[in-house]
Fold:
Amino acid sequence: MHLAYPAVLAALLFAIGVYGVLARRNTVLVLMSVELMLNAVNLNLVAFDVWLRDALHGGQALTLFTITLAAAEIGLGLAIVLLVFRTRRTADIDRITALGDPAEDDDTSAEAVA
Structure:
């Protein structure tokens, strides 16, 4: 198996993920783009593990760790997104400027002016 095919595919997946993180404003789409980047890393880990014929299969072990980390990340990320959506009524990244209470933010800005 040529190493170039999975490496090019992983590079394309990673580039699409980076574009999604930088260009999208919806938090759910940003989380999906981060998952896409992690899957590109997983593809590289497995491809290099097969190419190097590692006896311990270190690439596959790291892939399992990355999948576990991605599952935890998406769980916490979605919980944060849902909590922010409940308080702010939006999931738009540009409209969320601070993670404090919106009512407290207005009071703080009024005190800063005075």
